[in-house]
UniProtKB/TrEMBL annotation, chain A:
Family: Belongs to the binding-protein-dependent transport system permease family.
GO cellular component: plasma membrane
Protein name, entry field: Raffinose/stachyose/melibiose transport system permease protein
Transmembrane segments: 21-44, 84-106, 167-192, 228-249, 280-300
Domain of life: Bacteria
Cross-referenced InterPro entries: ABC_transporter_permease (IPR051393), MetI-like (IPR000515), MetI-like_sf (IPR035906)
Membrane topology of the entry: Multi-pass membrane protein
Compartments, as annotated in UniProt: Cell membrane
UniProt keyword Transmembrane helix present: yes
Annotated organism of origin: Nonomuraea jiangxiensis
Annotated ranges, domain ABC transmembrane type-1: 81-296
Gene Ontology biological process terms, A to Z: transmembrane transport
Keywords, sorted A to Z: Cell membrane, Membrane, Transmembrane, Transmembrane helix, Transport
PROSITE patterns from the UniProt entry: ABC_TM1
From TrEMBL, chain B:
Gene Ontology BP, a term: maltodextrin transmembrane transport
Record keywords, A-Z: Signal, Transport
SUPFAM superfamilies associated with the record: Periplasmic binding protein-like II
Secretion signal, residue range per the UniProt entry: 1-26
Protein family per UniProt: Belongs to the bacterial solute-binding protein 1 family.
Region ranges (Disordered): 27-47
Top-level division of the source organism's lineage: Bacteria
Record-given protein name: Raffinose/stachyose/melibiose transport system substrate-binding protein
GO terms assigned for molecular function: maltose binding
Biased composition (Polar residues): 29-46
């Protein structure tokens, strides 16, 4: 990229431009070297490992793409990828939709002290370490936890269960923890975006007889296109690459119903010592994240033009 | 912004960058040669820690004070030896073991499943020490699980690669007060009697069995293996765990055991939330008197004597037939010496001291709660009869008599517990797996893992 810039202006002031380019490179060398050592090199090594059968210590055997075949044919590994996509519903859809509603509500009462309290309470989960959130929620969701106590209190004792230990509810329960964590981030981002919207637009809409719902659909949501894209991107990545919450609350159980690729990679590499398969799954996960995140970015930008 | 960089060119640059980085490295892993036999040759005189000051490096398990207490006493008797000890949780040790043994070899280390470590030549072969200290004259069952064939397979025979600090023992703990409430004065002696006690407890509104089976810990493997030993002989189960050729877990008597376990699940003998209960929760529930029975090991004896004094009893799993053979999961608390350890001789001397010194054996029983290693006629400290520790020690003697020691079915391969037993036992609880399906799936995973090795 830098070279094309140089080439275009070369015939005008060759010496200065060349020097400038050199200085430019000098400036980015520290960042670039960090990026190469801590991001590019690990990715390259992971790719290399994924082509071998290796236990992490002893001699390795070249197996080509066999590990990638395993990722898509071993039901345990493939199901973990499916679970990650199911988590998107909870990690992305819930926080973004709910966040929009909450942000719109807070904006209407933006002058009152309640708005400040609401903002703080909603953003708090972002400040708490995910491990602490996972532990707290596993207590809340336990068979004798607060959630079941509340359910019993309102006469719903029949539906109480160990939410994280039940095949049907474990994944949604883990998803709700994620939704709780990410809701604050989305709300705050959307709220910030809303403050940029020109109030004149709302005034004009109101003069045309638009109600609050019409305002929300026709002005708020379209104006927040970029913020929504950021929220969706961040939360989709959080869903696909989830690890901490699940490692703390269910460790992938019961019966692999909450197994996600992040956790599977960890188990494969460090417990089962199948570094090759773990690396292959990691590469697939990385490509999936990119494949999901890039279209969202393009979508947001196209709308901008 | 998107227009400035053409994705094609950036992608190509990335591929080139990755290519250069990858090309710079050879195939991962070492092809290090096998350690020579020199390190394992038998000495004429048994090695010692000498008299010069020496610092031993240890890597122990957090939460189990036995190893550290023993090193403290050892330093009292041998003042030239000091210890530099690092502690981690067992799960962390399991994950770290190969790297630690390779990069920073400790003199003495608490070991996870050893097959892979032996395969990678990370552990010292202890045959020479066994000969010079006379460990090979101890009851063979104490060392059997720590013997491995060349390359780590099969287990149960071959060279010695680790030694226990003691021999732990599993069975049925019961709450004496709750037992009295259902009229159970002595522990059941047959499986049918156990079934009756469980049914009585259920009818009396008690939880018959508190057990853990949540997260990544399939604790129902404890009752399952005990039921296997109740219905059939222990030897074929050990063959399976030791990866002997042709061994299978899918046998008629094991199927009866799995069906019996399913019967218990369906009868509601475990807590409803057993799939969400972890080990710590199970312990606190049992100590709190929330259940009659608990399948667990004698590493908790000392703890239970402290937490519910006089109220905890222990019994071995009763056989299906009256007078049938007794068997139990019983495994040495394995410690090993890194292949490249600096002070291997002193570490071996320490392991021998743990098994033979009077004071060490007393600490082993008081703190560890299990039978120390060593000759069958070695010194045993007195333990008050009403303590559960007395019960577990007596059970250890019974198992030795019956030759009924089994390793844990979770130790058959490095991945079998997390990958196979745990999810399938959780499915069995949820009604998503059948007893037959459980054994068939586990056997298939086992065969796949052995083929992959």
């Amino acid at each position: 990229m830098a070279r094309s810039v140089t080439a275009r202006s070369a015939h005008r002031r060759p010496a200065t431009t060349k020097l400038r380019a050199l200085v430019g490179w000098l400036f980015i060398i520290p960042a670039l070297s960090f990026y190469a050592v801590f991001v590019l090199r690990p990715i390259a090594l992971t790719f290399q490992y994924s082509l071998y059968e290796w236990d992490g210590i002893g001699p390795s055997t070249w197996v080509g793409t066999a590990n990638y075949g395993k990722v898509f044919t071993d039901p345990d590994l493939f199901d973990s990828l499916i679970n990650a996509f199911k988590l998107i519903v909870f990690f992305s859809a819930v926080p973004v939709v709910l966040g929009l509603a909450i942000a719109a509500t807070i904006r209407r009462i933006t002058e009152s002290r309640l708005a400040l309290v609401a903002r703080t309470v909603l953003f708090l989960p972002q400040v708490i370490p995910l491990v602490a959130a996972g532990i707290a929620w596993s207590w809340l969701l336990a068979s004798t936890g607060v959630i079941n106590q509340l359910l019993s209190l309102i006469g719903l004792g029949g539906v109480t269960r160990a939410w994280l230990g039940d095949f049907a509810t474990a994944l949604p329960a883990v998803g709700m923890i994620g939704a709780w964590v990410l809701l604050g981030l989305c709300t705050l981002l959307l709220l910030a975006g809303m403050s940029k919207i020109d109030p004149a637009l709302y005034e004009a809409a109101r003069l045309d007889g638009a109600g609050p719902w019409r305002e929300f659909v026709s002005i708020t949501v379209p104006s927040l296109r970029q913020e929504i894209a950021v929220c969706v991107t961040v939360t989709v990545i959080a869903a696909l690459a989830s690890f901490d919450i699940i490692y703390i609350s269910t460790q992938g159980g019961p019966g692999n119903t909450t197994m996600v690729p992040g956790l599977q990679i960890f188990y494969l590499a460090f417990s089962e010592r199948e570094v090759g398969t773990a690396s292959a799954l990691a590469m697939v996960l990385m490509l999936l994240v990119i494949a999901c995140a890039l279209p969202i970015q393009w979508f947001a930008k196209d709308g901008n033009r | 912004m998107a227009r400035r960089v053409r994705p094609g060119r950036a992608g190509a640059a990335l591929v080139i960058a990755m290519g250069t980085l990858a090309a710079a490295c050879a195939a991962p892993g070492s092809n290090s040669s096998q350690p020579t036999a020199a390190g394992t040759s038998s000495q004429s005189a048994a090695p010692t820690c000498g008299t010069a000051p020496i610092t031993m490096s240890g890597y122990f398990e957090t939460g189990f004070p036995l190893a550290k207490d023993l090193t403290t006493e050892f330093s009292k008797q041998h003042p030239n030896v000091t210890w530099n000890i690092r502690e981690d949780q067992f799960a962390v040790i399991t994950q770290n073991a190969p790297r630690v043994l390779a990069d920073n070899p400790p003199d003495l280390m608490r070991l996870p499943q050893v097959s892979e470590l032996v395969k990678d030549n990370l552990l010292k072969n202890l045959d020479g020490y066994a000969q010079s200290f006379g460990w090979d004259k101890w009851p063979a069952s104490q060392l059997e699980q720590l013997r491995l064939g060349p390359g780590g397979r099969p287990r149960g025979e071959g060279s010695l690669y680790a030694l226990g600090l003691n021999m732990s023992m599993t069975g049925l703990f019961y709450n004496k007060k709750l037992a009295a409430r259902i009229g159970m004065t002595t522990p059941p002696t047959t499986l049918a009697e156990l079934d009756q006690a469980l049914a009585k407890a259920k009818n009396a509104g008690l939880t018959p069995i508190v057990q853990f089976n949540g997260g990544a810990t399939g604790g129902l493997a404890f009752p399952l293996q005990n039921l296997m030993a109740s219905y059939g002989p222990a030897a074929p189960i050990n063959d399976w765990i030791f990866q002997k050729p042709g061994a299978t877990i899918d046998t008629p008597s094991n199927l009866q055991a799995a069906q019996h376990l399913e019967k218990w699940i369906k009868a509601g003998y475990f807590q409803k939330d057993v799939n969400a209960v972890d080990y710590a929760t199970m312990m606190s529930r049992f100590i709190d008197g929330q259940g009659l029975f608990m399948f667990n090991g004698d590493w908790e004896s000392g703890n239970l004597d402290k937490q519910m004094p006089g109220n905890a009893g222990f019994s071995l799993m009763p056989p299906a037939q009256q007078g049938g053979k007794l068997a139990a999961m019983s495994a040495p608390l394995a410690f090993g010496i890194a292949a490249n350890a600096k002070n291997a001789d002193c570490a071996a001397f320490f392991l021998n001291w743990v098994a033979t010194d009077k004071q060490a054996r007393t600490i082993g029983v008081d703190v560890g709660g299990s039978r120390p290693m060593g000759p069958a006629d070695a010194y045993m400290p007195e333990v008050a009869a009403d303590k559960v520790t007395a019960g577990t020690l007596a059970a250890g003697a019974d198992i030795a008599k019956n030759n009924g020691a089994m390793d844990f079915i979770a130790n058959a391969t490095g991945a079998i517990y997390a990958k196979s037993w745990t999810p399938n036992l959780q499915k069995l609880v949820a009604g998503e797996q059948t007893p037959q399906g459980l054994l068939k799936t586990v056997q298939a995973d086992y065969a796949g893992q052995l083929a992959g090795n």
